[in-house]
Design brief:
The protein is of the alpha/beta class. The chain has helices at residues 2-13, 97-112, 125-135, 164-177, 189-202, 216-222, 231-236, 261-270, 287-295, 304-312, 325-338, 358-369, 374-379, 383-389, and strands spanning 25-33, 42-50, 53-59, 70-73, 78-81, 83-88, 115-120, 143-146, 182-184, 206-208, 224-228, 274-276, 406-409, 423-428, 431-434. Strand 10, helix 6 (216-222) and strand 11 (224-228) form a beta-alpha-beta unit. Helix 4 (164-177) packs parallel to helix 5 (189-202). It is globular and about 65 Å long. The two termini are 17 Å apart.
Length: 436
């Protein structure tokens, strides 16, 4: 088979951990494409990638394969855009030698799972360096969009601004450093609003949490571009007589007052706020489930220091997140989608037992469980992710001019999203990586 011979050639030529050489041209011949421009499969197509971009895409009998191209036999296979994980965490700081080594390995893990774009939500100088090296072809890895270091009052985050002046200075500093956005978490309403105002002046988007006592009204009208996680919605929609707590343990999301939801959804839709629900972290894991996850081969995707911490916690049944939070999140996602609020696919990896790479496939399955079709779930991590970032002309669909970020699959992902988790090969920026 042409495909098998190509994989062998790549495997023989490439040292472990190194990016494969850039072929002048790749042609995936006679493949069924899943373009992700709408819910469809187009059979008998040939897609040609030249210098990292799609140069031709159309019927196999109409697209000429350039002489000398690396040909991949696409018969009985499916080709779709690479996936975007829109809520990723890498090493805690990304600056030490150990962090850099972990991040390089995680970049490979993402590619192995078909993730060709990531939105890093805890930026650092080390992560910007990693991005430069990947973009230069020195390392295999996904395209990286990164916020600056997290801004919040918690001791676990990077910066703890307490004044308007500090907020203004951090926005200017993080934009100048080359980050793509500002990330907010626990802040006072005054400082949160100052970040939003400063970011609007500087022309840089803001992503993050909507913590108490900040309201969705303040965040949406102030310019927040994406709200992360399910918990803020459980707080916002909780019955009026229930105390608003910072953590989820006192919430009863199954009792949420959905009568308030239409106004909240309209606020988000009208102000262009997208939601990255990260349903995968709303799960509660029993000790038995923890042991199953720790025994799974994929656990090696996570850094050793986190695996050690998770193993030490295995006999402690979690009380956080709250009972019922996942069920609430599933209902929320379907209602947000039906109300026309934009959804993003994100896994919030590195949380306890949330394994990088694998977690995005779990999130896809949960979006389908919530009631989205496979196409709608996949769209949140392909064409809609690109639209959110304002990069719809660069990635997210199979079309001429798009980056050569593609997954070659053994089965149709529009029939079962799990089929997207088993790529026969991944093309990132025009570079071919075999599954192995």
């Amino acid at each position: 088979m042409i495909w098998r011979s190509c994989l062998v050639a790549v495997l023989v030529a490439v040292p472990a951990g190194a990016a494969p050489p850039q072929p002048p041209t790749i042609a995936i011949v006679n493949v069924s494409t899943v373009p992700m421009d709408r819910d469809r499969v187009v059979a008998g197509q040939t897609v040609v990638v030249v210098d990292g971009r799609i140069a031709a895409a159309g019927p196999a009998n109409a697209v000429k394969v350039p002489e000398g191209a690396q040909r991949i036999d696409g018969v009985r296979k499916f080709l779709m855009p690479g996936l975007a994980d829109m809520h990723v965490h890498l090493a805690v700081t990304g600056n030490s030698a150990q962090d850099m080594a972990e991040n390089e390995r995680l970049a490979e893990v993402f590619v192995a799972h078909g993730i060709t774009t990531v939105r890093v939500m805890n930026g650092s100088p080390g992560i910007l360096s990693l991005r430069r090296r990947i973009d230069a072809g020195e390392l295999p890895g996904p395209r990286i969009f990164s916020t600056g270091p997290i801004n919040g009052l918690s001791r676990t985050v990077s910066y703890r601004p307490e004044t308007v002046a500090e907020a203004n200075a951090l926005v200017v500093e993080q934009k100048a450093a080359g980050y793509d956005a500002i990330k907010l978490t626990n802040l006072t309403p005054e400082v949160y609003a100052a970040f939003l105002s400063a970011a609007k002046r500087e022309g840089i988007p803001v992503y993050g949490h909507v913590p108490q006592p900040v309201t969705f009204e303040m965040a949406a009208r102030g310019g927040l571009r994406s709200a992360e996680h399910v918990i803020p919605f459980a707080v916002a929609l909780a019955p009026a007589d229930r105390p608003r707590a910072a953590g989820p343990s006192s919430l009863a999301p199954e009792l949420s007052e959905w009568s308030r939801f239409p106004a909240l959804a309209a606020l988000l839709r009208e102000n262009g706020v997208w939601i990255c629900p990260t349903l995968v972290v709303a799960q509660r894991f029993t000790s038995a489930e923890k042991r199953r996850r720790l025994a799974d081969e994929s656990i090696r995707n996570g850094p050793q220091r986190l695996r050690d911490a998770w193993a030490a916690d295995v006999d402690n049944d979690r009380t956080d997140p709250a009972p019922g939070l996942l069920g609430f999140g599933l209902t929320l996602v379907k209602r947000l989608h039906d109300a026309g609020v934009g959804l993003l696919l994100g896994s919030d990896d590195m949380n306890p037992y949330i394994v990088p790479g694998v977690s995005l496939q779990e999130e896809l399955a949960l979006l389908v469980k919530a009631g989205l079709s496979p196409y709608q779930a996949l769209r949140a991590g392909t064409s809609d992710a690109a639209r959110f970032l304002g990069r719809e002309d660069e990635f997210g669909t199979i079309a001429v001019g798009q980056r050569g970020d593609l997954l070659l699959l053994e089965a149709n992902p529009l029939e079962d999203v799990a089929n997207a988790s088993r790529p026969a090969g991944v093309i990132v920026g025009g570079r071919l990586f075999p599954r192995r």
